[in-house]
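Researcher: I'm preparing a figure for a lab meeting and need a structural model of a single chain. I don't have an experimental structure, so a prediction will have to do for now. The sequence is pasted below. Please return the structure as tokens so I can convert it later.
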Amino acid sequence: MGDQENNLSIAKKWINAMNSHNAELMGSYCTEDAQHREIAEPEPFRGRTGIIKASKELFNGFPECTSNITNVFSGDNQVLIEVLWEGTNKGEFKSTPPTGKKVRIDIGYIFKFKKEKIIEIREYYDGYTVLKQMGLI
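Model: Understood. Here is the structure written out token by token.
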């Protein structure tokens, strides 16, 4: 299997680990100095430990969330995975008390690889829609 196929497989495994709410496994696919940049957030999550921590916070806020892959592209040490993400806000999330509201959004993840490990994740979604669906605006 070539790098392109391996990278696509690893990115899909990262999504599967998210669906099983296994933050440690998600982190294991990343380099120690990887960054996860949610475009709707001011600062990226830095390092494997930062990515694991952010994932645990997500699972705390949305304990039954799922990401269903709707599209994939890969090439040149990059993979794009589009998902339909769904979850109900049942726990504190980003210092906000639970709203009990369901969130359903499209997310695009761009994974960049170095030696078959994720070095960078860029996550694109509509932050306004998330806040609106959570009942915060």
